[in-house]
Design goal:
The complex is a heterodimer of chains A (343) and B (293).
Chain A: H1 3-32, E1 34-35, E2 41-48, E3 52-59, H2 61-70, E4 75-76, H3 80-83, H4 90-99, H5 103-110, H6 114-145, H7 149-164, H8 167-178, H9 183-191, H10 203-231, H11 235-243, H12 248-276, H13 280-284, H14 294-302, H15 309-342
Antiparallel strand pairs in A: 1-4, 2-3
Chain B: H1 2-7, H2 10-37, H3 42-45, H4 53-56, H5 58-64, H6 71-79, H7 82-113, H8 117-131, H9 134-148, H10 154-178, H11 182-190, H12 195-203, H13 208-224, H14 227-232, H15 240-254, H16 257-292
The chains are: A mainly alpha (343), B mainly alpha (293).
């Protein structure tokens, strides 16, 4: 295809992505190093005959408004927001580092800083949910593959539901069930014989239920991918293994798993990216007292009466850096694949 | 697999069926339960006294004389005017899917037919964009949108969702068009067609399966979005999902949780119908991404 034709075909989508993805990223970067203007102060001297003259400082409303209108982005402050207490908290971390005697104490204190607390939850969530999703998806795929032909369609239909459901809605549906007055909540209270047990009251239980939601939501995705992979499993390899006397576990271990390995890495990478942005379940579970994520911070900064663009932007930049680090292996692989194909 | 199934022992078969039943229960039961409970009053759905109340609807009978009530739906749809949000959602989804597919098809086709190095760079850029959590972009939108006075209206949200949809659409359609033999449009060009005419006459008639599959995923993305719609729409223009989130704020205090439950069931229903009719396309779309990705 000629370059000029390519441009004609590609320009609408390129324009859309440039304006609404690339440009906002730049905009986020710029906003993260700016803060709202300070109010312009003026000193007014008021003289009354008997008392004498007093100086008063007041806000010059007009000049402030003019300044804000002229430069809505605010004033340049450099990396100040990145290092403040709400984000990387550099000075606090240094203080804690020098003040604590061992690593345990250090991590415990670090965990009280909002950014690191959110980071701890985000990473825990990501690195527990991702492997669980792969394992559950794999087991279900093996299982469904062994079912009777007619049942498979029905099972696939119901399995897709948790995956296609709106994340917020899925989270709410589960949340209402594990509410202390819901069916699962009451069941848990009954099992542990503790009528005051409530998921909402305990950080640990809240994390567990968020992780349960994450696995419930994403396992069907892994299942569908692995199930499709199982359909392309070469029958002769499996038969050869059976003739050689391989047990069922050995067949799975040495024939099925190697065949699915590329799919496992695909699912794992997609899951890493998606779980890192965990956000809707925190809103749905009303869990922000116990668990925050980076995405939730941005949401919280932007919502409400006072929209804190600078703080939200700084968190966004940090999130983007995190995603990029997670993404590097995929990028390398894509590049390599393409190079192999083109040569 | 025939050999394997013949040798399966009875105990293994029982285990398989128990496990499958368990999985079905985990996947489907929450929906069934919520659907059933949405026709009850709050004290039955969240029953402190006895969990079987949610099945039999004891309090619902006491209040309405029958075990089922549509009070939650009436409250959500009529009193809280949820139908407005439903209409908004479908407007947003319709335009997002149409626009996204139109420009995505052109772009994806161009990517699949050009062998130059820059196609790879564009695809990788799209992959990076796909990985960006949409909420990180929102803080980039808000200030300019306020400045230009376009915040809060549906068209802005539609355009943003189209753009966020593009990376995925491009990847999907790119790999789909690669499976359509190049010889088709090459021969049309030899016969004197321009590239666009070749696309129109030769490619468009055969591209629908891939386009429909991609469209389904675009629809899901627009329908399920919460980050963008909750941040970029004003209160009057809200779509269903941010409205449900807003219900939580107001209804928990007013004691009308059942409105939210009814709204959740209403918003989930279209997705069920979608899966019912397009199960094959969804599965094939997911696996196409895995094989190519």
């Amino acid at each position: 295809m000629k370059h000029s034709t390519f441009i004609w075909f590609f320009s609408p989508t390129a324009l859309a992505m440039l304006l609404f993805i690339a440009f906002p990223i730049v905009s986020v970067l710029v906003q993260s190093v700016h803060a709202p203007h300070k109010a312009v102060l003026v000193e007014v001297e008021t003289c009354t005959p008997l008392v004498g003259c007093t100086k008063e400082t007041s806000i010059d409303q007009e000049a402030t408004r003019e300044l804000r209108e002229k430069k809505p982005i605010g004033r340049f402050i450099g990396l100040e927001i990145f290092t403040d207490r709400g984000h990387l908290a550099i000075s606090e971390v240094k203080e804690i580092w020098s003040g604590s005697e061992n690593f345990n104490e250090f991590f415990k204190k670090i965990g009280n800083l909002p950014f690191y607390r959110a980071m701890a939850f985000t990473l825990t969530f990501t690195f527990i949910v991702t492997p669980l999703v792969v394992i559950v998806g794999f087991l279900v795929a093996l299982n469904v593959n062994a079912l009777h032909e007619r049942l498979k369609g029905v099972v696939v239909f119901f399995s897709l539901l948790p995956f296609v459901i709106t994340p917020l809605i899925g989270a709410l549906v589960l949340f209402w069930m594990i509410d202390s007055r819901g069916i699962l909540g009451s069941a848990i209270q009954w099992i542990f014989a503790d009528p005051n047990l409530s998921l909402k009251a305990s950080t640990g239980l809240m994390w567990i239920s968020l992780i349960v939601y994450g696995v419930w939501h994403a396992a069907p995705f892994a299942f569908v991918i692995f199930y499709a992979g199982l359909q392309t499993l070469p029958a002769d390899q499996l038969e050869a293994a059976q003739i050689d006397g391989a047990t069922r576990t050995q067949q799975v271990r040495y024939v099925v798993l190697p065949h699915l390995m590329p799919l496992v890495s695909f699912v794992a990478l997609i899951q890493l990216m998606d779980n890192f942005r965990v956000f809707e379940p925190i809103v749905g579970f009303n869990a922000d007292a116990h668990a925050q994520s980076l995405s939730w911070f941005i949401f919280n900064d932007l919502g409400g009466e006072t929209r804190q663009f600078s703080s939200a932007s700084a968190t966004s930049v940090l999130t983007i850096i995190g995603v990029t680090i997670l993404l590097l292996p995929v990028l390398r692989r894509t590049w390599r694949d393409f190079m192999e194909k083109s040569t | 697999m025939t050999l394997a199934s013949k040798r399966r022992s009875l105990s293994l078969r029982i285990i398989i069926y128990i496990f499958a039943a368990l999985w079905l229960l985990i996947a489907a039961f929450p929906f069934v339960w919520t659907f059933w409970g949405s026709f009850k009053v709050e004290l039955d759905f969240f029953s402190v006294a006895n969990w079987t109340d949610a099945l039999t609807g004891e309090r619902t009978v006491a209040e309405y004389g029958q075990p089922f009530t549509d009070a939650g739906y009436e409250g959500a749809w009529i009193k809280e005017e949820f139908w407005r949000n439903v209409i908004n959602t479908f407007i947003v989804c319709f335009f997002v899917v149409c626009t996204s597919l139109t420009i995505g098809t052109l772009g994806g086709y161009a990517l699949s037919r050009s062998g130059y190095r820059y196609t790879l760079i564009l695809l990788i850029a799209a992959l990076i964009f796909r990985a960006m959590p949409p909420i990180t972009l929102v803080s980039g939108y808000m200030l300019p949108f306020f400045e230009w006075n376009v915040w809060g209206i549906l068209p802005t949200t539609i355009i943003v969702l189209v753009a966020i949809n593009q990376p995925f659409t491009l990847w999907m359609l790119h790999s789909f068009f690669q499976n359509i033999p190049k010889e088709l449009d090459e021969s049309a060009k030899v016969d004197g067609c321009s590239q666009f005419k070749a696309f129109r006459l030769v490619i468009i008639p055969v591209m629908w399966p891939g386009v429909i599959t991609t469209g389904l995923f675009s629809f899901l993305l627009a329908y399920n979005d919460f980050a963008i719609t909750s941040m970029l729409l004003s209160e009057d223009n809200r779509t269903m999902v941010p409205q449900i989130a807003a219900f939580l704020g107001t209804t928990y205090t007013e004691g009308n949780v059942m409105f939210a439950v009814a709204a959740v069931v209403s918003a989930a229903a279209p997705l069920f119908i979608l899966v019912l009719f397009f199960q094959r396309q969804i599965v094939s779309g997911l696996t196409a991404g895995a094989v190519k990705g």
